[in-house]
Amino acid sequence: MAQSSSSKGNERRRVWQQLQLSVVVILVLIQSSFALDDIYNPGPHDADVFEVEQDNTVQSPKCRKVAGTPKPAGVSPPNRLFVGVPKQSGTYPVIHLQHAFTMKIDFYTQLLYHVATYGYIVVAPQMPQISLPDATMEIADGADTLDWYPNNLEALLAEMFPNLKVKPDLKKVILAGHSRGGKVAFGLATGVCKTVLAPNFVGVIGLDPVDGTGPGKQTTPKILPLSPYGLKLPFPTLIVGAGLGDDKAGINPPCAPLGVSHDAFFSNSAPIAYHFVASEYGHMDYLDDDLDGVEGVIANTLCRNGPKRAPMRKFTGGIITAFLNATLYGNSKALDQAILNIPGAAPVKLDTPQITRTITESVYASS
Ligand SMILES: *[C@@H]1O[C@H](CO)[C@@H](O)[C@H](O)[C@H]1NC(C)=O
């Protein structure tokens, strides 16, 4: 009798323990599935964004038709930089981000931070702010900064974080650019000006990239061949468009006119290429919330913008990390989920995402 009641008690305890265990397992599962999906908030790494002063003695670079040599060790970068970096020892791929027309790299800290928390080193060089219609000098300038990385980026990170071993993996360089900076990134990708790192390019990202002032009005150097798949890049492409980029802001012409912006960059990209468009957001919604100075006024007024920037910035940071995971590590789970475009899953409303998987398969919408 006593024994049976105690064994009943044991049984109950066992069931109870199993129940508790299952609850714990379920909670862990839920949490880990959230962690996988939630690319739109900062990732697993602690991260930092810091500024690096430029070498003021540097002359305007030449647009090299043949790659030169890396810059020597121990020199300052040819351009002022903002660097986003994970604060944890490790070796991380490098993303080289070119900013938008007349903008400051100071305006990209939130995006830099977001991507760095996923285990990437993001470097944004400041371009000359008064730029001519011809973007060749900016492409040369971008190449000049890339030439600085091999002998200096690792040392810079060692100096910034003496207690950590944070290293750049310069075998994996991803080019990225916003607006005119998108044109510059594709100019680097297509070799308009050469850099020693060109053989290590493994992907290119355009954030509302712009190649001119209107359909048929490309600025020099023309980057878009204006033919399907004509860019013929040997690595994957991600295009993130802003649906309002083609709208006027008051009397100002559109900042990203269709025909020379995200639509054309996508249709001109060879497989594999991805195209996401946030229909209700504008050309400058990739930037930080608080923008100072004249450049801030320009960013806030020159282009048609969305209701607020945070959702677009979070979407962009998230989709970049999803693209990088697919491109660099073959893990396309997050990207596949984004392509499904489940309502409410992303922080912005999206047009139907597009992918070009193969040329024969042609461009198709996935859902
Ligand atoms: C990237 O892939 C790794 C493993 O391959 C995974 O643990 C991580 O959650 C993925 N991150 C994103 C943002 O998809």
Notes on the structure:
By secondary structure, the protein is of the alpha/beta class. It folds into 2 domains: about 1-35; about 45-365, Rossmann fold, CATH 3.40.50.1820. It contains 8 helices and 12 strands. It has helices at about 1-35, 110-115, 135-160, 180-190, 260-265, 295-300, 310-330, 335-340; strands at about 45-50, 80-85, 90-100, 120-125, 165-180, 200-205, 210-215, 215-220, 235-240, 275-280, 355, 365. A 10-stranded mixed β-sheet has the order 1-2-4-3-5-6-9-10-11-12, with helices on both faces. Strand 3, helix 2 and strand 4 (about 120-125) form a beta-alpha-beta unit. Helix 3 (about 135-160) packs across helix 4. The protein is globular. It binds 2-acetamido-2-deoxy-beta-D-glucopyranose (NAG). 2-acetamido-2-deoxy-beta-D-glucopyranose binds near residues 36, 118, 331, 333 and 334.
